[in-house]
């Protein structure tokens, strides 16, 4: 990932034009995964810190160590920080880089899914369990068997099944895998070859393991062809999220180096999904990562930007704004700083 952009930007102007303000400003937060559990909003973000690690394309400067869970009584209420819910020191298999997490609820138990690097530098995904949505969460002793890469997102379908989506290229290491197998020699496909897709697996009933071999998702263009790796404005990079609207499955994601949050629609949780357009235009900072959550009768986009830190890419702040759909189910593109 490139250097942060602190030069020549008038952040006072940007902050005035911004369509929303940080939900909290006492710590830096990013990658907000929002859910309504038992009628209350809970947000599971990354907790950004300055770990003093130099910038590089692998994102090593994202040196996060723990997770805090936030709650809101309603969408206009104050965002409450419920403190540390899980620390990397308590995760036996993980060494560092607690990146974007997500959470799920089943039968009164809460599950926190999180990526982290093992001592060998390889990302895997872990799960930690609690009786409360705000934790503390007790991590499983090992990572989820067969898991890899980053950015887990768990979708509960209307039939009660839970699916986990994950993957991210570059620092997220997805380019090192084909058919769920690691090979250090693998790289991203060539520009005219099919792009790497995000990965999905049904979760086992106990929510602690995959119930099946993970499968690669296809994101198609308007002609039904898989998006190619050189289509940087539309191809999947990281930050998977799935929500259901009018019985259709919406798969949304970040395009990484072109900084869009885009979406594609499909008829089932495994896809294929057909590319539709952009949900969010680029924010201040390199990364963009979001979640989409229905609160009462409205839909909201939780996202982040680096405006509070004046453009420091790894010091981000979570925000929320409303999503509007057109009659045909398409989402109106949001410009984070007005038009
Ligand atoms: O927060 C660290 C990484 O940055 C996340 O895992 C990516 O999605 C990007 O937001």
TrEMBL record:
Q: Which domain of life is it from?
A: Bacteria
Q: Which InterPro entries match?
A: Glyco_hydro_43, Glyco_hydro_beta-prop_sf, Glycosyl_Hydrlase_43_Enz
Cross-referenced CDD domains, in alphabetical order? Answer: GH43_CoXyl43_like
Name of the protein: Glycosyl hydrolases family 43
Which family does the record claim for this protein?
Answer: Belongs to the glycosyl hydrolase 43 family.
* Annotated source species: Flavobacterium defluvii
Site (Important for catalytic activity, responsible for pKa modulation of the active site Glu and correct orientation of both the proton donor and substrate): residue numbering on this chain: 151
* Key words, A-Z: Carbohydrate metabolism, Glycosidase, Hydrolase, Polysaccharide degradation, Xylan degradation
Coiled-coil stretches, from where to where? none
Task: List the Gene Ontology MF annotations in alphabetical order.
Answer: hydrolase activity, hydrolyzing O-glycosyl compounds
Q: State whether keyword Hydrolase applies.
A: yes
Task: Extract the Pfam families matched here.
Answer: Glyco_hydro_43
Gene Ontology terms describing biological process: xylan catabolic process
């Amino acid at each position: 990932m490139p250097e942060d952009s602190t030069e020549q930007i008038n952040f006072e102007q940007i902050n005035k034009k911004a369509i929303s303000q940080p939900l909290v400003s006492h710590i830096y937060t990013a990658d907000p995964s929002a859910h309504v559990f038992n009628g209350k909003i809970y947000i599971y973000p990354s907790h950004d810190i300055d770990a003093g690690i130099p910038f590089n394309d692998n994102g090593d400067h994202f040196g996060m160590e723990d997770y805090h869970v936030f709650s809101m009584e309603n969408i206009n209420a104050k965002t409450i920080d419920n403190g540390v819910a899980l620390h990397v020191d308590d995760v036996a298999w993980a060494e560092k880089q607690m990146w974007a997490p997500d959470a799920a609820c089943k039968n009164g138990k809460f599950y926190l899914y999180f990526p982290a690097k093992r001592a060998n530098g390889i990302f895997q995904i872990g799960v930690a369990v609690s009786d409360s949505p705000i934790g503390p969460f007790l991590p499983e002793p090992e990572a989820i068997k067969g898991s890899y890469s980053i950015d887990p997102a768990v979708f509960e379908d209307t039939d009660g099944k839970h699916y986990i989506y994950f993957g991210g290229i570059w620092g997220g290491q997805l380019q090192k895998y084909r058919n769920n197998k690691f090979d250090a020699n693998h790289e991203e496909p060539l520009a005219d070859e099919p792009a790497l897709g995000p990965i999905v697996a049904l979760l086992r009933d106990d929510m602690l393991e995959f119930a099946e071999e993970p499968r690669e998702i296809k994101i198609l263009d308007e002609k039904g062809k898989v998006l190619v790796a050189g289509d940087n404005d539309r191809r999947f990079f990281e930050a998977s999220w799935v929500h259901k609207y009018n019985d259709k499955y919406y798969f949304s994601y970040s395009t990484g180096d072109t900084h869009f949050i885009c979406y594609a629609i499909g008829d089932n949780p495994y896809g294929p999904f057909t590319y539709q357009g952009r949900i969010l235009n680029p924010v201040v900072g390199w990364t963009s990562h979001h979640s989409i959550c229905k609160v009462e009768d409205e839909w909201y986009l939780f996202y982040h930007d680096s405006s509070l830190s004046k453009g420091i890419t790894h010091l981000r702040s979570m925000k929320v704004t409303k999503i509007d759909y057109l009659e045909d189910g398409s989402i109106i593109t949001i410009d984070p700083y007005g038009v």
